């Protein structure tokens, strides 16, 4: 399985902050927003990652992640000329994906929970074994802002709807999707919505029509932030700060994950820590190497 992380878009919901800066570089507490979805991909053991990005952001992404080899990974980039919808990323990633299945992540979504990696691994295994699509639902108080999933009394999925004016449920489909290889062709065949975009909800609807869509609900033990608004952005940062200060452990530390995965050595970890030695982040990495 390969991972595709969407990190383009115009970030208009965070204006004026993002007029001159891509939102994915903004800090969620002590690290860039984009570290968090990348860290989850790494925790799944996925080494091959493609970032879908804006043309003007390519150099900064390369400055941040290079080709991924310093993390024991293979990181590549694909330009999205303009934001034509989340599903377009699947089309742009076609050559990168090849014949593999796909972990598809939104770069501004932050997840936390004791079993988050476990349920992601279950989704990955389900797709690799049986194909189809596997997505996640989360209860929200403002469902008109999201893609919404409707269930019957037995928990079967009845419908999906993107940003509905009259939501049929309060369960939003969050920005973490697992697809078999057919997702690329499905994305190619969907039509733009009334908003003029290729909606990821349309891809999920096609899997639903084929009876190949699984939805797992994330309950009260999980936190999810769509950090694309000012309020949610601040909430996510405060949440991560609280967790890290209480536990002394970092959330979304990509160097730590690479080290614990055995992708880099102790010496390589210390080398990554060197330019960060004046920060708590760098000192944390040094502490890991000295455990």
UniProtKB/TrEMBL annotation:
Keyword Nucleotidyltransferase on entry: yes
Cofactor: Mg(2+)
The keyword NAD belongs to this UniProt entry's keyword annotation: no
Boundaries of every Nucleotidyl transferase domain copy: 2-241
Gene3D superfamilies on file: Spore Coat Polysaccharide Biosynthesis Protein SpsA, Chain A
Superkingdom: Bacteria
InterPro entries in alphabetical order: G1P_thy_trans_s, NTP_transferase_dom, Nucleotide-diphossugar_trans
Enzyme Commission numbers on file: 2.7.7.24
GO MF annotation list: glucose-1-phosphate thymidylyltransferase activity; metal ion binding
Keywords in alphabetical order: Magnesium, Metal-binding, Nucleotidyltransferase, Transferase
Catalytic reaction(s) noted: dTTP + alpha-D-glucose 1-phosphate + H(+) = dTDP-alpha-D-glucose + diphosphate
CDD domains from the UniProt entry: G1P_TT_short
SUPFAM superfamilies the record matches: Nucleotide-diphospho-sugar transferases
PANTHER family: GLUCOSE-1-PHOSPHATE THYMIDYLYLTRANSFERASE, GLUCOSE-1-PHOSPHATE THYMIDYLYLTRANSFERASE 1
Family membership noted in the UniProt record: Belongs to the glucose-1-phosphate thymidylyltransferase family.
Function: Catalyzes the formation of dTDP-glucose, from dTTP and glucose 1-phosphate, as well as its pyrophosphorolysis.
Annotated protein name in UniProt: Glucose-1-phosphate thymidylyltransferase
